[in-house]
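Just wondering, does anyone understand these tokens?
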Amino acid sequence: MQPQIHELGASRSGRSQATKPTTHGRVSIGLGCLTILLLSLLDPDHVGFQVSSSSIKNDNYHTQVLDHSLNLIFNLSNPEPVLNFYNPDSLLSKILIPRPVESKNLSDCRTLFAQHFQSLSTHIDVPLQSNLFVNSRQPPSYSPVPLREIQTWKLDTHTFKASTPLGTKSFENQVFTHDPTAPLRLVLAAHIDSKFFPNPPDNQFVGATDSAAPVAIILEVAKALTPLLDKKLAHDVKLGQAGMTAERITLQIVLLDGEEAFREWSHTDSLYGARELAKKWSEPLRTPTATQKRLRSIDAIDSFILYDLLGSPAPEMHNFFSETGWLFDSFEKVEARLMRKSTFTLFPSIPSLATHLGNNVQQNLRTRKPFFRKRLPGQPIAFGSIEDDHLPFLQEGVPILHLIAAPFPQVWHTIRDDRSALDLQTILEWSLISQVAVVQYLGLETFLDGYLSGRRDELVPPS
């Protein structure tokens, strides 16, 4: 592992820019100091989707949910079928297997992921037009917007071949998009491959934290929030039928292949899936003209949240990027509220989880340190970066939140990164933190069953 430094800057479009680092090696953060990566600035003329000043924005976006809503979000989904790795039939248990690039195990995992989202999918009619916002002026005459049928959680597979130190290999990324017609996406991403080791016993490397548990966490988030996403989309359709379109941002799950190096980590032997997908999405969708900016699929990404090396107890989370410091703070505040409101102590109330969580959850939470390291007054917003699947997207100006344990888990890239490295309570907490943070980001709170009664109870003082 060789140290690198990345400097971060902002372009005129408001997005962080970075060029490729000049040295090699994935970098961990130590207890005493941070190893930082040096990034120079890209062309500052990058422009994504533009919004006119006369547009009306949805005030529900990025709004802190009510205390009452924390329990409503907790009750959205039973995490047992996805996250309980003690249950051999759970999704996480089924992917706790060696799954290097091109292996049958990895192919079987992709089938599981596709089946997971197929079970969540539905058909719905959506407005044809793709305006980002409701027009601030009343239309001169009523004219319904034409509709077309789509399937939610649309799967796009991205297959390609790449040269590796072990010869040409085939890779496949999976992209699941709840509303494929929405012009903006919040991306939750993780890599699906486990590191390749040629000889036993290391060739049985499972990669429980790297990155089976992160994949399972974001798949549980998608499952829990699908009813809210469906309701929001139906709400947007009603606006479309009235001749208007609401601000449209959807949830997208990106499962990346080939994150791991086959031999030594380098800019050519790592991040295969991320590099190719970012390249594909960066291709222009139209030729720039005097009146139109360039348009690329990658510009639809509102924020890109990457999960990695999660699932072991007591992770330390640090903020790495100035531009998304507000999003890191949002996750930190969500975790603090869930701890303060004792919401994390509710997991043993789920019978199928109680046996595995034991009787010490409340006591453990009293001594538990927060995952997210809150910034103190006077501290810098960003502390550096670690090479991971986000880099090709960062280099194209995409806002990044990197959720990775730093320092790395002690089992990193060892045969001990297996089921025994995981902590069920920690994984459940990661899922709930993420669900609340995404509900806030996408403005989904108003679609919670029981939200209105809770809002009345919290906002109206007792008589």
